[in-house]
TrEMBL record:
It comes from Streptomyces phaeochromogenes. Pfam families: T4_baseplate. This is Phage baseplate protein. InterPro entries: Baseplate_phage_T4-like.
Length: 242
């Protein structure tokens, strides 16, 4: 990791400490696409953002992602690995920007939600209703236009299913069989949260290295960050031997 890249990531981490999870996800997405504006990033489909974050994770910390789950049946602690590169390739932009649903006399056109849609809906007391209000392009019942909040539960479920099929990368769900009892445990993989946890641990380790080397040698932070991780580790070992 170059000096500039390390310094930029430290700035991303520092800014994100005061942010909610949605703000941290946007910061990480900006790190993945530094030449793309924030408004453009917020307008992207969720699956495309997830692909970008998996690719960023691979670039920063490698292919192998260690995941831990608790078996929902017996409580066994399960550990397994995922491939960040494979997940980046399997997610991405949706197949269609919108879906059409015909159900029990209803005809609905629904825009596949983007990052900004989910962020705004999460702040609403009723996230599902807020998402429908933002993403339903048209709703017709027996030839008559109706508001999005009038959609029955069955139609709402059908819309959710169709949107998930159009943008499968928006919801990466793991289904893991327990090696002890054989029961399956389902869990959502939130790459933004996972990557932020890794970035937080990395940043704190780097700042400790900076503190120790600055104390021992009087070097500035940019000078220490300019060292490769291997050379930095050797200097730290020399400090420990004194």
């Amino acid at each position: 990791m170059t000096n500039t890249r390390a310094a930029e990531l430290l700035t991303t981490w520092e800014t994100g400490l005061a942010q909610a999870p949605s703000g941290r996800a946007l910061l990480l997405h900006r790190a993945a696409r530094p030449d793309t504006g924030g408004e453009t990033l917020s307008a992207l489909p969720v699956g495309e953002r997830e692909a970008d974050l998996f690719a960023l994770r691979r670039a920063l910390f490698g292919e192998r992602m260690q995941v831990r789950l608790i078996c929902s049946a017996c409580g066994e602690d399960m550990e397994f690995d995922l491939d960040a590169g494979e997940l980046a390739r399997s997610t991405g932009a949706p197949s269609e920007p919108s879906v059409q649903v015909a159900e029990d006399g209803w005809e609905i056109e629904f825009r596949v939600p983007g990052v900004a849609d989910l962020t705004a809906a999460a702040r609403h007391p009723d996230p599902r209703r807020a998402l429908l209000a933002r993403c339903v392009v048209s709703a017709v019942r027996d030839g008559v236009d109706v508001p999005a909040d009038a959609l029955p539960e069955t139609v709402q479920r059908r819309l959710a299913e169709e949107a998930q099929e159009a943008d499968p990368g928006a919801d990466v769900t793991l289904n893991v069989n327990c090696p002890e009892c054989g029961a399956a445990t389902r869990a959502e993989l939130d790459i933004a949260s996972y990557l932020w946890t890794e970035l937080d641990a990395w940043a704190r380790d780097v700042l400790l290295d900076v503190h120790l080397l600055a104390t021992a040698y009087g070097w500035s932070e940019p000078e220490i960050l300019a060292l490769s991780p291997l050379r930095r580790r050797y200097y730290l070992e020399l400090c420990a031997d004194v």
